[in-house]
Specification:
It is built from 15 helices and six strands. It is α+β, with helices and mostly antiparallel strands. It folds into three domains: 99 residues, no CATH class; 143 residues, no CATH class; 185 residues, Helix Hairpins. Strands 4-5-1-6 form a four-stranded antiparallel β-sheet. A two-stranded antiparallel sheet has the order 2-3. Helix 2 runs antiparallel to helix 14, helix 4 packs across helix 7 and helix 12 packs antiparallel against helix 13. The longest helix is centred in the C-terminal third of the chain and has 99 residues. The chain is rod-shaped, with a radius of gyration of 65 Å. 12% of the residues are buried.
């Protein structure tokens, strides 16, 4: 009866199978290695040219506003973001404009001559005869191949950009990569420069110069028409004159008021107080000195009192003294009436003179005040014209500086002075990167060994005959009575 048991493959069994199919193993191994070696040798060689570009902080990262400002120093805006700066340059390098321009300048047939062969085959097969369409298709195909073979990457923690390009010809690979760098410089400058800046600033300079000249002419004409030489001095002298005239006018008004009060007092016949004292003053209106007459009258009255103390009122001495008193009183009354009439006449003349002087002073004040108002108005207009001239001068100087800055920037663009520099230019590579013959052979050796072992094992697994005594014992559990040795043809 057959026993069923689980069997395990030993290393000895594997060696037995290998030695049993040793010719197959050798054939599979050498076949795989040979095929891989032949394919690797027949594969077209691919060369990779490399270059490195460094992006520095430069004038492209400094922004100066184009609007005019009254300040002498323009505000500058800086972009310090290194990562954004490098990424922006990478986008320019990997952009469609750069690739198409490189292909256009070098020529599709010079970079990819195999495309001409494929194009000729298609023309023969499909009878395409449109030259423009053929060129367009070839250019599009070259662009796709270029994008696949060209790579751009930023070196970590640096401002370096690594460029690489793969091609079957090492010289073409270096040529294309150097052309990429050259076109990149042009695109970089075109992106950061303002092509219309110089024309704009130059036109603005001409316009501002015309404005400045017009404002200066207007300022000079205004000064000439209004006879303005030293407006501040004229205004200061006029203010002094007005101040002095106001003081004189105030004195005239005060004197006029006093004389009007005196005239009112004289007109009312009020001769008491200060007016009586005034009548006793020795003036041209009072030559007989009313005060002396009053003194004499007082003495006579005192003498009358003395006589009355000695004599009776009807006595001759008293009558005589009273007669003298009457004469003195009559003289005083006559003189006072005369003084009163002269005083009124004199004060009237004086009032008329004061009124005329006050009128003249008032007219002069009005005239000078009108002149002051005119000068103040002229001063305001003159200040406006001066500010206009100053503003036009400052704007003109600002745009003159901007024109010079833009001219220098254009000169630097012409000389291709930028914040991008080549660290390592592209050189023709000495060794291809594809195919990797040694690596392929090493992999084929490993693959040949595994295939040489696995395939015979599988063949042995598919075989249903017994080739040795152990197989009979293992599978049939029967004793082996005899075995036939292998034929030795030697």
């Amino acid at each position: 009866m057959k026993k069923t048991e689980k069997t395990h493959t030993s290393f000895r069994d594997i060696l037995h199978v290998i030695f049993k199919y040793k010719l197959h193993v050798a054939a599979i191994f050498f076949c795989i290695v040979s095929i891989v070696a032949v394919i690797s040798l027949m594969m077209p060689k691919v060369y990779q040219a490399g270059a490195k570009v460094m992006v520095r902080f430069g004038r492209e990262n400094v922004y100066m506003p184009t609007t005019p400002t009254l300040r002498e120093n323009q505000p500058l805006i800086f972009d310090y973001s290194r990562e954004e700066l490098v990424n922006s340059e990478i986008e320019i390098l990997s952009g469609r404009n750069l690739i198409e321009r490189v292909i256009m300048e070098l020529g599709v047939h010079n970079i990819y001559p195999e495309l001409d062969k494929k194009r000729n085959i298609k023309e023969l097969l499909f009878h395409k005869t449109d030259p423009a369409k053929r060129e367009k298709e070839a250019f599009a195909a070259a662009t796709l191949v270029f994008k696949k073979d060209f790579s751009v990457a930023a070196v970590r923690k640096s401002n370096i950009i690594d460029l690489s390009y793969q091609h079957n010809d090492p010289a073409i690979a270096a040529l294309v990569l150097n052309k990429v760098i050259e076109v990149f410089f042009d695109l970089h400058l075109n992106v950061y420069k303002n092509p219309q800046g110089y024309k704009f600033f130059d036109s603005q300079v001409a316009l501002l110069k015309k404005r400045l000249q017009d404002s200066e002419i207007e300022y000079k004409s205004f000064c000439r028409e209004n006879d303005i030489t030293a407006l501040d001095q004229q205004k200061s002298l006029l203010l002094q004159t007005i101040s002095s005239l106001k003081k004189e006018h105030a004195g005239t008004l005060m004197e006029l008021s006093e004389n009007e009060e005196r005239m009112i007092a004289l007109s009312d016949g009020n001769l008491s107080g200060s007016d009586n004292n005034a009548m006793g003053e020795e003036t041209e209106l009072n030559p007989m000195a009313i005060s002396s007459i009053r003194g004499m009258l007082n003495e006579l009255r005192m003498k009358e009192q003395e006589l009355l103390s000695k004599y009776t009122p009807e006595s001759l001495p008293v009558a005589n003294i009273r007669n003298e008193i009457k004469k003195a009183q009559d003289l005083l009354n006559r003189e006072e009436r005369m003084y009163h009439s002269k005083a009124i006449t004199s004060i009237s003349h004086k009032l008329r003179a004061l009124q005329k002087r006050e009128s003249v002073q008032r007219e002069q004040l009005n005239k000078f005040q009108a002149e002051l108002d005119r000068i103040n108005g002229l001063e305001l207009q003159l200040r406006d014209l001066e500010r206009k001239v100053t503003l036009n001068e400052e704007n003109y100087q600002i745009y003159i500086k901007k024109v010079e800055q833009d001219r220098l920037s254009q000169d630097m663009d012409t000389q291709k002075i930028a914040n991008v520099s080549v660290v390592e230019p592209a050189l023709p590579p000495l060794k291809p990167i594809k195919p990797k013959l040694m690596l392929n052979i090493a992999l084929s050796l490993v693959l040949g060994i595994f295939a040489g072992i696995l395939i015979p094992m599988y063949m042995e697994y598919l075989q249903h005959s017994f080739s040795n005594r152990e197989d009979v014992l293992k599978h049939l559990d029967l004793p082996v009575l005899a075995s036939i040795p292998e034929r030795d043809d030697s």
